[in-house]
Amino acid sequence: MEASSFLHPSIGFLAFALAVPFFRGGAWRWLALVPPLLALYGIMTVDPGTYGGLPYIGETLVLGRVDKLSIVFGQVFAIIALIGMVYSMHLKDKGHYIAGSLYVAGGFGCVFAGDYVTLFLFWELMSVGSTFLVWQAGTKECVGAGFRYFMYHTVGGLFLLAGMLLRYKALGTFAFTHIDPSAAQYYDWLILAGFCVNAAVVPLHAWLPDAYPRASIAGAVFMCAFTTKTAVYVLCRGFAGWEVLAIAGTIMAVFGVLYACIENNARRILSYHIVSQVGYMVAGIGIGTAMTLNGAVAHAYAHILYKGLLFMGAGCLLYATGTAKLDKLGGLAYKLPWVMVLYMIAALSISGMPLFNGFISKTMTITGAAEAHRTWLAFGMEVAAVGTFISVGIKLPYFAFWGRKREYTGEIRPIPLNMYVAMAMGGFLCTLQGIYPDILYRYLPYAVEHAYHPWTTWHVLQALLLLGFSGLAFYFTRQVITPHSKLNLDFDYFYRLIGKLVMAVICWPLSKIDDVWTEVYRTVGLRGLIGMGNKTAWFDRKGIDTVVDGSAYTVRNIGRAGAKVQTSRLQDYLALAVFLGLCLFGLVWYFG
Asked: Which InterPro entries does the protein's record reference (predicted)?
């Protein structure tokens, strides 16, 4: 084990979260930039190795497993944490900074965990921190969404806990290593199920489009980056080459865009696209070749940047107008021109437009699937790419910034400068990576037989043709996919139905038991209490009152008799003394 010289990225965020309640004034918000800068510095300067070993029940818990895979995820986590903190700097609510810092610390802890115990502890820290980010919105809807979100992740955490404990019982180790699909046991499947909840694998995805649109504006920027991408990391680390992931990821890619195309709320559209884009990554991990694994990692990196920018753009719309529903927006192009420009950079990135980072990452996964002769999987991802451009690249900006309105007539709240700065940072990185893909490719962890070059004539032509036909498809279907004010629940409908049935099954017998108990109490318990009360009252009158009152009467009578004896005449006192003396003599004579 090497000397511990690795500054764990979680330390700064945990320290900041603990210190925030004691800060006063407003200048302390600048300190929110320190933890991500320290994390980025530590990650960029550390050498690969194992750091921070802790002995535990005969095992060594590893807090810092540093290799190419953890470095690339840690790097982009630090970057988006910095951008998210800049985006949040207008906020005065300390709860946001505490919840966000704990959430980010959990993400970093998972990325650098070398064993399942460490992974589980930080996994649950992420769950708690992100739940409070949902609640930070302060609305009635966010309360219910936060509880549902926490319930989903609690169930996922229990799957992970059960799997790791059973695995330890069978193998005697908590080491977090790759699992061979041909030798997988039931406990490995439990661990996979726990990871798939956080990855929003269909049909375990319902928490994502339910909670993310209801999170606070700044909180959603953090949430879109860490939960699902941490799941992508652990799947890449432990379950590469699992066929079930290849199929599930492709289903996610198609399913997400289908629901995004019919959504009305801008943040729900983007949430469904997280499901879709993570599907590319999960499919690449499942296929398991070096090309598709690198594609999954590259796409996770690019996705964190452009998805964060997309949520920042949608957050600006919500901040400025008070709504993210497309049927109530429109005509904002001239009111919020910089929001439109910066949003479109992200929209073109996610759509795979050349010159932007989505083009250099998404095409790698699709090409890797085709080279692995997984034609249907590659075709499914291409179909998803069409839906992505239609829904996020055309539909959302069209109805938000134009929407057949010359000008938005509602009140517009001024957007703070720091929100623009954060969006500009994200837009710059999305464009820089698209133009110079090597600044991302150099960090990819898996060695390939031949380097992938996105800037070939075929790749560029293919992307442009795909985007061109997507635009044409939108033109012919624009009347069909016009936003309507309704809530689409997809699989969440069945989860809520199951919840209602469970509540009915539990509540009906409990209500009957309560009715019977109420009647028993009324006929037996209440009468018994009344009888006990009557007996207590009788005892009070006959027992306690008699003793107390009798003593009082006796003292009073003695006092009265004593008062009568005191006549102030000497002859009376002499007579009394003679009488008492005779009585005393009689007693002595009689008993003596």
From this structure: ComplexI-like_HydComp (IPR052175), NADH_UbQ_OxRdtase (IPR003918), ND/Mrp_TM (IPR001750)
